[in-house]
Amino acid sequence: MFRSLHHRRSNPPILLSSNCYSTPCPAENPYGFPQAVAAIAAQYGFGIGQESLQDSSIAAFAAGQPCIVNWCRFFAQYPNVLRELQFAEPTCADNTCAVGSPTALLPLASARAARIVEMMTTDLAIAYGKTTGPYTPAYQKALTAFSGATTPRPPAATALAATPK
Q: Could you tell me the residue ranges of all domains in the chain?
């Protein structure tokens, strides 16, 4: 089901981001380019993703509005491809930044069937760093819940951990 580049020892999936890259999506058709990317990716069995998961997606989805670049719709429209999200910037544990907290973002990603979430090192450090703080248990719980919700993993996703020898 998932296509990948031929590689000697692994089959890493190809994921295409639906962002408009370096420029905002055109106001007259903000979802045209992302829709085209998602359609082409799905046609060839590539994964689709979005590189700025943030708190505004939670509010937009709850209000029946499109998430950024309409990724919520694309994920539902193409259920047979690998779906990936990436935090826009480091998150904030107290949910006071524009990106938000993984304790809220990861449940949205899971509910919309994301299979992979790329996060910043600072987010992982809050959850599993050497020093613990008041948000450590909440981050660990959110990460564990997301990880548990995305299993069993599709066979191609196991290739992400494979390294060529």
A: 15-153
